[in-house]
Amino acid sequence: MSSQLDLDHPLFQRVSHWVNLINFLVLTITGFLIHSPYPGMPMNLVRNLHFIFMYLLIINGVLRFYYSFFGKHKDYGDFFFNKQDVKTTWPQIKYYLFIGKHPKTGKYNPLQKLAYIALPIMTIVQAVTGFILYRPEQLSGAASYFGSLAAVRGFHYLLMWLFIAVIAVHVYLVFTTAYEQFLFMFFGKGRKEKSVS
Ligand code: HEM
After folding, report:
1. Which of 127, 138, 150, 182 has its CA 20 to 30 A from that of 15?
2. Alpha carbons 79 and 119: distance in angstroms, whole number
3. For the chain, which ranges sit under pLDDT 50?
């Protein structure tokens, strides 16, 4: 699907993408440390960093969502699944399994779209579970939906691993099959070839 952009990644998208990377890095590292603290760790600092970056993640997500629909280079259409995506999903899987050719796709291929749709949904779930942990007294009713506060913690922790898995695949595919896209994400140059990651 064409987004009618003359740039692959306009400045706002690029800034938002790299801010997201920093947010996820800090949240993952501090999350790990909160989960498994070591003796003498500056717990307050680690927790406060987690709290600051969780707000940055949410603000960045809300701005990116707004931009997708109302920004100058709105690009929500690039992420929606269409009939062509349904047809090219299996060929795309075969391509990744090294048993087929890369199908003709729009700016993003169907598996890429699924990943890019999954990430904001996962972020919302992570924010909900995170806020239950942040305000356990006020949100004890919400915690009971998960069974207990301990279950919410476990869920928040497991979801971190899902983030790590999705982002690892994303990074692997960018560097193995679409290195130019990595440069475009930095410099926002015009599109020269289809992205395949
Ligand atoms: C908006 C999003 C988020 C909110 C509101 C949030 C909030 C929280 C809170 C309040 C805690 C408990 C801190 C404590 O008790 O000292 C926590 C722990 C944690 N967070 Fe987040 N967080 C968010 C995003 C993330 C992300 C994106 C990751 C990783 C990808 C992450 C990973 C973790 C981990 C691993 C823990 C430790 C859980 C445990 O104790 O087992 N969080 N988070």
Report:
1. 127
2. 12
3. 1-6, 191, 193-197
